[in-house]
Write a structure and sequence with these properties.
The complex is a heterodimer of chains A (300) and B (258). Chain A is of the alpha/beta class. Chain A has helices at residues 43-50, 70-73, 91-102, 107-115, 131-143, 161-176, 188-194, 212-217, 230-239, 263-272, 287-296; strands spanning 3-14, 17-28, 32-36, 58-63, 76-79, 149-153, 180-185, 197-202, 205-211, 221-225, 243-249, 252-257, 279-283. Chain A has eleven helices and 13 strands. In chain A, helix 6 links the parallel strand 6 (149-153) and strand 7 (180-185). In chain A, 40% of the residues are buried. The mean pLDDT of chain A is 87. Chain B has one domain. Chain B has helices spanning 2-13, 17-37, 48-51, 56-66, 69-85, 88-95, 99-132, 147-169, 172-193, 196-199, 203-209, 216-223, 231-255; strands at residues 41-42, 45-46. In chain B, helix 5 packs antiparallel against helix 7. Chain B is globular and about 60 Å long. The chains are: A alpha/beta (300), B mainly alpha (258). The A-B interface holds A 48, 51-55, 70, 73-74, 78, 80-82, 84-89, 93, 96-98, 100-103, 141 and B 4, 7-8, 11-12, 15-17, 82, 86-88, 90-98, 255-258. Chain A: Residues 5-228 form the ABC transporter domain.
Chain lengths: 300, 258
């Protein structure tokens, strides 16, 4: 499928700080693409550049295969960092301004307010909103005009657990309509729960990119036990060509398989050796531990 | 295009109390000064009716109004720097504005304020002239009323410079101080240092030429004649400065991150 956004060699330097270093990624159409990284890793800089508010020091990007223009902007709804509104205007008045700029009919305002659950407070001034309500209003504004792509920078920032769950559901609902979502987050949990694709950034450098499932499966761990003493299982396992790592851990043998190897192959290999395994468990590593691994790699 | 930009700007400004307070101060000061000018007593004789005599009234009126351009400038600086304070400038560029649109939108506000203030000055002239001056005087009521047009250019010039300061400095307090210091201290010092033949080309000098001091001849008998562009020359030059300030604002926005 075509990419909604293509980024090639994007760099940004602030004085002596290299905020973004030769970033190249592609956001497939219809994906929920997570840009994951700790604070200061270059997520917001990346989004700021592709949203036309930060000038890159180098590199290029295309939306829908075109350079950024007024017409491409109209196909994108975005929220960058903090919610940006006039404090002395009501939520509804603020959205009227957004709608006018996006050339969207005011009739859409009520719909997006309903979607984020802010209808009952639309007459109140923005400055009286809680952080969570401000964030919802920003999401409502991004949804105005039913854009093909939503760009959301830390969309659950400042929300309470209930609000977080609602926003995540909203993202999934919007994605279910075939829209593409580009989401920046420092929360692994969020990316794991919501995203289909991800890129991991650290110090402005790309550390990993791909479908969330493939990034996770490359490091699947398998635990086996039963059928034979642990020592024997360990020796047998170490002889198998597709096992890259084997060690005993808590009455089980923990294995790491070469990528692309199915756990049933493992089972039949043991069976061929005359061992019927009592238990075989495939455990996908939590994204968090993977994330820490990806980030720790090449720390120097 | 510009009309839709202006209507968006009005959505921001009309509900904004600061906007109305500054406009109210502008109107109140203008009316008060105009009213009390006639009650000044010179040599035991009230300036009174003669002050409102057409057509001289137009020169006096626009000269007085020119003092309050600074207030209009402050208003424009606030309108610009608020966009940075609320970070709405960023959001609006994300939502579809180009950087040129950002400048055009603010410039449309400047033009509107210029028209409103010029109309106000024009109305005040007609009202005060008719109420307070001798009745026989109204025949030449509109003679010299084109000074209101020069005042319009001047007000737009001040506000466009203020807009540039707003975009340049981004913070309201600092931008206002810098604007006032430039308009009232830096340029006057430069004027003082340079011969008239050079300083007449400076923006503040050209703008101030548009509302000449009433009874200029009398004034120059004391201070010595100063060289300036003719009023039409100053108007042309002011228009060039206005375009330049808009262009510089745009270049600033282009070259910086929002």
């Amino acid at each position: 499928m075509a990419n909604v956004l293509d980024i090639q060699g994007l760099s940004k330097r602030y004085g002596r700080v290299q905020a973004l270093d030769q970033l190249s990624i592609g956001v497939p159409q219809g994906s929920i693409y997570g840009l994951l990284g700790p604070n200061g890793s270059g997520k917001t800089t990346t989004l700021g550049i592709v949203l036309d508010v930060i000038n890159p020091s180098g590199g290029t990007f295309q939306w829908f295969g075109q350079t950024m223009s007024k017409s491409t902007k109209r196909r994108i709804g975005a929220l960058l960092e903090t919610p940006n509104f006039y404090p002395y205007l009501s939520g509804e008045q603020n959205l009227r301004i957004s709608a006018d700029i996006k050339k969207v009919d005011h009739a859409h305002i009520q719909r997006v307010l309903d979607m984020v659950g802010l209808s009952h407070r639309k007459q109140n001034k923005f400055k009286g909103y809680s952080l969570g309500m401000k964030q919802r209003l920003a999401i409502a504004s991004a949804l105005l005009g039913d854009p093909e792509v939503l760009v959301l920078d830390e969309p659950t920032n400042g929300l309470d657990p209930e609000g977080i769950a609602e926003v995540r559901q909203l993202i999934l609902d919007v994605a279910a309509q075939g829209k593409t979502i580009l989401l920046a987050s420092h929360l692994l949990d969020e990316v794991e729960k919501v995203c289909t694709h991800m890129a991991v950034l650290r110090n402005g450098k790309l550390k990993a990119e791909g479908p969330v499932s493939s990034i996770m499966s490359t490091n699947d761990q398998v635990f086996i036990s039963g059928g034979a003493p642990l020592e024997q299982l360990l020796v047998l396992a170490q002889q198998l060509p597709f096992v890259t790592e084997a060690r005993v851990q808590q009455n089980q043998v923990q294995l790491v398989l070469q990528s692309g190897t199915d756990s049933s192959e493992l089972n039949s290999a043991f069976f061929a050796q005359g061992v019927a395994l009592g238990q075989l468990t495939v455990k996908k590593k939590s994204l968090e531990s993977q994330f820490m691994e990806i980030i720790k790699a090449e720390t120097v | 295009m510009t009309s839709s930009l202006l209507s968006i700007e009005l959505r921001k400004l009309l509900p904004y109390r600061t906007f109305w307070v500054i406009l109210a101060v502008y109107v109140a000061l203008l009316v008060l000064i105009l009213y009390f000018s006639s009650h000044v007593t010179i040599n035991g004789q009230k300036a009174g009716e003669s002050f409102y005599q057409f057509p001289d009234l137009w020169v006096k009126l626009t000269y007085i109004a020119s003092y309050f351009n600074l207030l209009l400038g402050i208003l424009v600086i606030i309108a610009v720097t608020d966009e940075y304070a609320f970070r709405t400038i960023r959001q609006q560029v994300i939502d579809g504005y180009t950087r040129a649109n950002v400048v055009q939108a603010k410039y449309s506000v400047v033009l509107l304020l210029g028209v409103v203030c010029a109309l106000l000055v024009f109305l005040l002239g007609i009202i005060f002239g008719n109420i307070f001056s001798p009745a026989s005087n109204t025949a030449n009521m509109f003679t010299d009323s084109h000074y209101v047009f020069f005042y319009f250019i001047q007000a737009v010039g001040y506000m466009t410079l203020a807009m540039l300061f707003g975009f340049l400095i981004k913070k309201s307090g600092l931008a206002i101080i810098a604007f006032l210091i430039y308009a009232k201290i830096v340029e006057p010092i430069i004027h003082y240092q340079l011969p008239d033949s050079v300083d007449k080309y400076f923006p503040m000098k050209a703008l101030s030429t548009l509302t000449p001091i009433p009874n200029k001849e009398l004034f120059e008998m004391v201070t010595g004649a100063s060289e300036s562009l003719g009023i039409w020359g100053a108007a042309a030059q002011s228009v060039i400065y206005i375009m330049l300030f808009c262009l510089l604002s745009y270049i600033l926005l282009r070259s910086r991150d929002l």
